[in-house]
Amino acid sequence: MRADAGSGRRRPARADVRARRVPFAVLVVGLLVAGLWALLALNTAAAAAEVQTRQLTSDNANRRDEVQQLQIDINAKQAPGVLAGEAAKLGMVPDTNPVFLSIHADGSVVVLGTPTPVSGPAIPSATPPATAPPATAPPATVPPATTVPPVATPIPGASPLPGGVR
CB neighbours of 100 closer than 8 A, spacing ≥ 6? Predict the structure, then answer.
């Protein structure tokens, strides 16, 4: 340190001032570098989350399409004609006197109707057999359509003339 000529105070040398400023500058630069690394890490994590979100959204759309197709398949297999054809293949016959079971909240069961054994021919197939020739019918003749002119019916209390004049 050197002494100031007029005041009696000693001023620090320039080397001492620089030596005290170096740790502060290193600290500031270190904080900046650490902040940039943290920003880079956060940005990378956000990008990875976005990629995963897009992948999951795409997978979800594919699953939704698959569920919709399976629902269409189920509905087609549950159609009345298809069920009747499958029942006929199994030798089932239609019941003209159906019986229903009513199950109450307490667990008791009541039979609605009178059960009777069913006998008779199987349900005719909904689709014609492949070996049967197609039935040919003579073309039907349709009489020409006749047009009848419309008849105006008066409305009670309405004016026959435009503008409401009677």
Answer: 111, 112, 113
Q: Taking a C-beta distance cutoff of 8 angstroms, is the pair 95, 118 a contact?
A: yes
Tracing tokens 């902040």 back to the chain, one arrives at 35
Q: For residue range 60-76, what is the model confidence (pLDDT) as tens digits?
A: 999 999 999 999 999 99
Q: Is the pLDDT of residue 96 over 60?
A: yes
Distance CA 164, CA 150 (A): 23
- Residues in CB range of 156: below 8 A, 6 or more apart: none
Q: Quick one: pLDDT at residue 10? A: 67
Q: What are phi and psi of 110, to 5 degrees?
A: -120, 130
Per-residue pLDDT tens over the stretch 106-141:
999 999 988 888 876 655 555 555 555 555 555 555
Q: For residue 66, what are its two tokens? A: 């698959």
3-state SS class at 56: helix
C-alpha 84/C-alpha 123 separation (Å) is 7
